[in-house]
């Protein structure tokens, strides 16, 4: 057989396809054309269905080419949500109703994610080129997030966004909601609960709008029980909608005292004047009316604000600091709560020393026994919202004591009992030393630095006296915002002042204090510290790129307060938090802390580096008066202190004593430059393979 014939037979199908390729191309083209036509038809049908679902407004409701939103039925097919938070991003879900969730940040400014938008909105609202109908047809709702402790700019961003949108002609579908981080003043107990309550009402309103129902009913208050909308020929409502509108009307009335609207802020006539021509002769009357309404509103807010600031419930009694929501949050963090405003928690260094794995930096610097130290506070409230707070701002804030108060005897008794119960849980745990377990059941030291501002507690002096009567030494930490309380404070074993920054700007950025005169309070607190005769300490927390370059200013503050010791510690990163922008990049290396301390000591000739605790990334600078005969005496003779404080109490405060009266020699291993780097050689250092975040400390 001819091989050329076989080859031709095998390739004949391919040749056939090639000959008929025109018909194949034509088939593909027809198929694609049909698919495109089907897509166009389906989209056209969807658009027509949407147009049919919204009834056309009657011709007589047309004004200046626009349909009045108040005069036509409103339908909703979706929601567009914008998040303006420090850690959030903008998220879009659908159309028609825009919801703005905006937080108020430092000094009443918007967060970084909302800064540009707020600036544009503010400029547009006051720019005549945009006009008062620029956003006409847009429907919106606003929920603000803030903290009422900052009374001067509480939810300022939310109020402004609501106002600016309204000034540009947008239509509010619901009153503005306001979430409050201050659990004491929060209407529903927490900011999350505030949002849930507002969200429930908002969803109910959306459902009503989706059905084409109006927000407000007649209610029978207008002439002959008929609304103007009915007189203009609006469509009849469906059966049963009147009852639902009455319920919604009641809902709206409940919101009014708590959630102001832009109409309320500017007055109803002012809103009309935005879109209508006003005679110059009538302008004075309109402005007088607006000013009168504004004055009345401010007086009403002042009265209601005074009542809220007192922190009293409906019966006129002071409210408890620990609300149910706060109790739940703190309990999850391991707190043992006491009464209505106190708490105790087991420090991780207490657990470490029970196992013989080393003590905290206070053990290295001052000779405390970490396994016998109780970390507590008689006040969970604080006057600052520091960026490095290891409690993630779950505690309440305030500038004065406005809660009901527990007696110091009860607080101390329950604090010791709760501490002992937590120690008991380590009985039989592998690695726990029996002798230290027994010693740990007897509290010898009290670190009043758990959380909050202990010095805010009105009976702090009585509480300290009870501690000393029980032979418990006292280490009290304050944030330098209460100078009068520092001056009135009775002697403590060691008094700390947190010096987190050395300039007004950086202190405001890092500590975020509630007081408007925070800087003057800060300086007055340092001056009050200088007048103390007992041991005083500056506590410096270094935040990389924020406060490590202020050496000269720190030196000036040292001269102002003249502390006995200066603790310099690198900031501890406690994980991500919506309340702080702190990251691991802000945590300095130990070598960087050492370099900072060396440079600072060069500027303060009366001080030298005394001790080091590498594990805590911390160093101690001590006044040279504690260096006697070439040896450092930074440790504390606790028995001698108890004798001195007893003599002070017996003499009615006339027999005073100084820091040098109860000092003790510092061991060699605790000194700066020692090979141990501050680790007690009696213990065994334990290196964990999988390091987990630790948010406890003292």
From TrEMBL:
Q: Give the cofactors, semicolon-separated.
A: [4Fe-4S] cluster
Q: Reaction(s) catalyzed by this protein?
A: N(1)-methylguanosine(37) in tRNA(Phe) + pyruvate + S-adenosyl-L-methionine = 4-demethylwyosine(37) in tRNA(Phe) + 5'-deoxyadenosine + L-methionine + CO2 + H2O
Q: Work out whether the entry's keyword set contains DNA-binding.
A: no
Q: Which CDD domains match?
A: Radical_SAM (cd01335)
Domain Radical SAM core: residue ranges: 366-610
MF terms in GO:
4 iron, 4 sulfur cluster binding; FMN binding; metal ion binding; tRNA-4-demethylwyosine synthase activity
Its GO biological process annotations read:
tRNA processing
Q: In which pathway does it act?
A: tRNA modification; wybutosine-tRNA(Phe) biosynthesis
Q: Which UniProt keywords apply?
A: 4Fe-4S, Iron, Iron-sulfur, Lyase, Membrane, Metal-binding, Nucleotide-binding, S-adenosyl-L-methionine, Transmembrane, Transmembrane helix, tRNA processing
| Acidic residues: bias regions | 253-267
* Membrane-spanning parts: 22-42
Q: Where is the composition biased (Basic and acidic residues)?
A: 225-252, 282-311
Domain of life of the organism encoding this protein: Eukaryota
Q: Where is this region: Disordered?
A: 214-311
Enzyme Commission identifier(s):
4.1.3.44
Q: Cite the Flavodoxin-like domain residue spans from the record.
A: 36-203
- Protein family according to the UniProt entry: Belongs to the TYW1 family.
Known role: Probable component of the wybutosine biosynthesis pathway. Wybutosine is a hyper modified guanosine with a tricyclic base found at the 3'-position adjacent to the anticodon of eukaryotic phenylalanine tRNA. Catalyzes the condensation of N-methylguanine with 2 carbon atoms from pyruvate to form the tricyclic 4-demethylwyosine, an intermediate in wybutosine biosynthesis.
Task: Write down what this protein is called.
Answer: S-adenosyl-L-methionine-dependent tRNA 4-demethylwyosine synthase TYW1
This protein's species is Macaca mulatta
């Amino acid at each position: 057989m001819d091989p050329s014939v076989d080859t031709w037979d095998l390739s004949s199908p391919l040749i056939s396809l090639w000959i008929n390729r025109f018909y194949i191309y034509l088939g593909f083209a027809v198929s694609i054309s049909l698919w495109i036509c089907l897509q166009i038809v389906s989209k056209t049908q969807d658009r027509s269905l949407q147009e049919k679902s919204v009834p056309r407004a009657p011709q007589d409701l047309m004004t200046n080419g626009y349909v009045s939103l108040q005069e036509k039925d409103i339908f909703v097919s979706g929601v567009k949500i914008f998040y303006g938070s420090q850690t959030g991003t903008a998220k879009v879900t659908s159309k028609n109703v825009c919801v703005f969730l905006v937080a108020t940040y430092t000094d009443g400014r918007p967060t970084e994610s909302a800064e540009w938008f707020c600036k544009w909105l503010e400029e547009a609202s006051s720019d005549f080129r945009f006009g008062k109908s620029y956003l006409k047809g847009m429907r919106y709702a606003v929920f603000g997030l803030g903290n009422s402790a900052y009374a001067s700019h509480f939810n300022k961003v939310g109020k402004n966004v609501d106002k600016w949108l309204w000034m540009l002609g947008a239509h509010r579908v619901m009153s503005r909601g306001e979430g409050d981080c201050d659990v004491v003043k929060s209407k529903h107990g927490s900011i999350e609960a505030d949002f849930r309550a507002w969200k429930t009402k908002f969803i109910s309103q959306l459902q009503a709008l989706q059905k084409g129902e109006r927000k407000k009913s007649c209610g029978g208050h207008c002439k002959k029980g008929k609304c103007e909308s009915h007189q203009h020929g609006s469509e009849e409502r469906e059966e049963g909608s009147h009852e639902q509108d009455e319920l919604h009307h009641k809902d709206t009335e409940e919101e009014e005292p708590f959630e102001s609207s832009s109409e309320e802020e500017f007055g109803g006539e002012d809103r009309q004047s935005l879109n209508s021509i006003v005679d110059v002769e009538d302008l004075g009357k309109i402005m007088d009316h607006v000013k009168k309404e504004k004055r009345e509103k401010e007086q009403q807010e002042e009265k209601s604000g005074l009542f809220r600031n007192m922190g009293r419930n409906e019966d006129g009694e002071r409210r408890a600091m620990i609300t149910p929501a706060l109790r739940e949050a703190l309990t999850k963090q391991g707190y043992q709560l006491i009464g209505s405003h106190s708490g105790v928690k087991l420090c991780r260094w207490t657990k470490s020393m029970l196992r013989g794995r080393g003590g905290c930096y206070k053990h290295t610097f001052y000779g405390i026994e970490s396994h016998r130290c109780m970390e507590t506070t008689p006040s969970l409230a604080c006057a600052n919202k520091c960026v490095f707070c290891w409690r993630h701002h779950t505690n309440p804030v305030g500038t004065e004591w406005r809660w009901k108060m527990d007696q110091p005897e009860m607080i101390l008794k329950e604090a010791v009992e709760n501490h002992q119960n937590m120690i008991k849980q380590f009985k039989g745990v592998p690695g726990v030393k029996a002798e230290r377990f027994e010693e740990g059941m007897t509290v010898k030291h009290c670190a009043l630095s758990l959380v909050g501002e202990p010095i805010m507690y009105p009976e702090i002096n009585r509480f300290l006296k009870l501690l000393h009567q029980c032979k418990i030494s006292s280490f009290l930490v304050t944030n330098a915002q209460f100078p009068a309380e520092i001056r009135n404070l009775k002697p403590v074993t060691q008094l700390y002042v947190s010096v987190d920054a050395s300039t007004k700007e950086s202190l405001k950025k890092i500590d975020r204090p509630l007081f408007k005169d925070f800087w003057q309070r800060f300086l007055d607190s340092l001056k009050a510290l200088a007048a103390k005769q007992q041991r005083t300490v500056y506590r410096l927390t270094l935040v990389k790129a924020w406060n490590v370059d202020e050496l000269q200013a720190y030196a000036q503050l040292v001269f102002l307060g003249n502390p006995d010791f200066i603790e310099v510690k690198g900031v501890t990163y406690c994980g991500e938090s919506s309340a702080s922008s702190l990251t691991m990049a802000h945590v300095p290396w130990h070598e960087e802390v050492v370099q900072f301390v060396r440079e600072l000591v060069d500027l303060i000739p009366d001080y030298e580096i005394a001790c080091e605790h590498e594990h805590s990334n911390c160093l101690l600078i001590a006044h040279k008066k504690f260096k006697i005969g070439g040896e450092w005496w930074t440790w504390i003779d606790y028995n001698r202190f108890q004798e001195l404080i007893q003599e002070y109490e017996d003499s009615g405060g006339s027999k005073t004593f100084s820091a040098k009266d109860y000092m003790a020699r510092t061991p060699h291993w605790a000194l700066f430059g020692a090979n141990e780097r501050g680790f007690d050689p009696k213990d065994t250092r334990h290196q964990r393979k999988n390091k987990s975040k630790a948010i406890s400390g003292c």
